[in-house]
Design a protein that fits this description.
Length: about 200
């Protein structure tokens, strides 16, 4: 995992706070394997099904990591892992009011993206396709609309399978991509990083 992240050229690492074993401090967790002077930590609310759960997890993340950044995920249905637009908006409103830097994971919905920007989210993160699906960017036209209207960075998040899709996202006007499964399972280390550079 550490080698994959290093070779990818990643600058930010997102960490699912709910998946850390915080009850047993003697056990190592993902936070122990990285040099946090080299990376920015981005805690996330993966596993939260409601806005209330996401707000609670964000507060816990700030306590554990010291970071006020939060990747907001509100996903009520584990079968398809699609984000809840209403729960995401409600949680974002509360977290922005509490001083968090909110990076919301959303469906590629230009109206929702604009509303999240209007309440103070630091970025919008439209999905390319469902999390972990490896289906590539299925929402390209919607992402183009979001990019054209956004005054905050646009991060294409989820579903990217091959390095060329990272390049395609940046060619479309996105500022960056968030990739997990494809980098973790990559046979050629560093290909996603080079594709992002090419797309930029």
């Amino acid at each position: 995992m550490v080698a994959s992240v290093k070779s990818s050229g990643a600058e930010i690492i997102t960490v699912a706070i709910r998946r850390l074993d915080l009850d047993n401090p003697a056990e190592k967790n993902i936070l122990d394997y990285f040099d946090w002077d080299e990376y920015t930590i981005l805690p996330n609310t993966a596993g939260c099904k409601t806005a209330d759960e996401a707000v609670f997890t964000a507060r816990l993340a700030r306590e554990v990591t010291g970071s006020s950044w939060i990747k907001l995920e509100v996903i009520p249905e584990p079968k398809h892992l699609l984000p809840d637009p209403i729960g995401t908006y409600e949680a974002a409103c509360q977290l922005v009011d509490e001083g968090f830097t909110v990076l919301p994971y959303i469906h590629a919905d230009p109206v929702l993206a604009r509303r999240l920007e209007d309440i103070g989210c630091a970025t919008v993160m439209p999905l390319g396709s469902p999390i972990g699906s490896g289906q590539g960017i299925q929402t390209l036209e919607e992402i183009r609309l979001i990019v054209a209207d956004a005054n905050v960075p646009v991060v294409v998040d989820a579903g990217l399978a091959v390095p060329s899709e990272a390049s395609q996202a940046l060619e479309t006007g996105a500022d960056c991509v968030l990739v997990n499964t494809a980098i973790a399972q990559a046979r050629r280390r560093g290909a996603h990083g080079r594709s992002v550079q090419a797309g930029r």
